[in-house]
Amino acid sequence: MKLIFATQNQHKRDEVQAMIGDNITVISLQDLNFRDELPETSESLEGNALQKAEFIYDKLHQNCFAEDTGLEIDALNNRPGVYSARYAGIGKNSNDNIHLVLMQMQGIQNRKSQFRTVICLIMDGETYYFEGTVKGIITSEKRGTSGFGYDPIFIPDGGNKTFGEMTNEEKNEISHRSKAMKKMLEFVESKNDR
Ligand code: ITT
User: Fold this and answer.
1) pLDDT in tens, 128-187
2) What are the residues facing 119 on neighbouring strands?
3) Is the four-CA dihedral 93, 97, 98, 100 of positive or negative sign?
4) What CATH number is associated with residue 72?
5) Strands 2-5 vs 25-28: parallel, antiparallel or unpaired
């Protein structure tokens, strides 16, 4: 079974590739040499995941999925959330986003937050959603250079390491994205078996 992963984010693609078993082949937009930026103008992760998946389904008419991920921080009313990619403004990068979050969190005791991933799968014209979350806390400074995005300032519950200090395998074992992916893969495989 083949699925197109509608993302232009190479880190996401690599993480997902490492989660896939033998029964499913994930084809990236890069494999297809498809470089268009994907639309994501919705006010929710679900809405953005749908927009990205529909965009590709409408263009390529093949089963595909997209995901939208946000870092939801309690003390910031769940921001950056759906605005995670461009929190510090258009043209800014992950470092700028991290810097802004750390500034806004200065002096705040409640560091609780979560990463939330919503996957939208369009298969044979039907739309399905899968969600994965991981709870943790925001550090007061950057730690580690692995992963991407906000990984260096997020410590998942149950340990002391940030995602930025973990190997890819360690992150994949517990991450928001892997939980959502696992649900989608189980669903797709169960459909495949019928
Ligand atoms: P696509 O829309 O092409 O998939 P994107 O980078 O725009 O790629 P999102 O809108 O889902 O994807 O990204 C939200 C941002 O949140 C992303 O740019 C990262 O900075 C951050 N992010 C997403 N997943 C993350 C993760 O697992 N760890 C740390 N930060 C992450």
Assistant:
1) 999 999 999 999 999 999 999 999 999 999 999 999 999 999 999 999 999 999 999 999
2) 67, 130
3) positive
4) 3.90.950.10
5) parallel
Q: Of 10, 12, 142, which is best to mutate to test ligand 1, by the most ligand atoms within 8 angstroms of its C-beta?
A: 12
Atom 23 in ligand 1: residue holding the nearest Cα: 69
Compute the distance from residue 45 Cα to the ligand 1 centre, in Å. Answer: 11
Element (H, E) at 117: strand 112-123
**Given the residues 68, 124, 151, 157, the one annotated as active site:** 68
- Give the domain range for residue 81: 2-192
Please give the Cα distance from 61 to 150 (Å, whole number): 33
Q: What is the pLDDT of residues 84-128, one digit of tens each?
A: 999 999 999 999 999 999 999 999 999 999 999 999 999 999 999
Instruction: Provide the 3-class DSSP secondary structure of residue 138.
Output: strand
CA 73/CA 64 separation, integer angstroms:
30
Total structural domains within the chain? 1
Whether 68 sits among the annotated catalytic residues: the reply is yes
